[in-house]
Amino acid sequence: MTFRSNSYLIKGDSQAECERVIQHWPDTVDYWYPSSRSLTTIDCVALLEINGHDEFGLLQITRSKIHKIDPEYLDKISKWLSPHRPHRYIAVVPNKDICDEFRLDKADPDTVVPLYVAYVDDRFFEQLMNE
């Protein structure tokens, strides 16, 4: 999975403003982060390259091994993004150990959005500093 942030948008001081950004996604933006922590279930939306195809990642960053999501809210967002391109929810954890132990509080939530967990490569920050 490759993350790009060539063009980003930081906008949204409320839940309603954040939802408007998602509903009317600008074609020129590949990473969006709300101005405030006002969204349910996700922290940001990023355009990701996965297996050679572009997809939206509905990202939530967590350190928890046991995590809760709001499947109804994910389905709501899914209806807004579907016309644009495929998308998935990804819980992003800090390392492989947490990723291996990661579980959702409700083991199999009822949602149309594919659910994934990913971890930051242990060498990510080291590589970033050397660029």
Automatic annotation (TrEMBL):
Source taxon at top rank: Eukaryota
Protein name: Unnamed protein product
Species per Swiss-Prot/TrEMBL record: Phytophthora fragariaefolia
Lineage, top ranks: Eukaryota, Sar, Stramenopiles, Oomycota, Peronosporomycetes
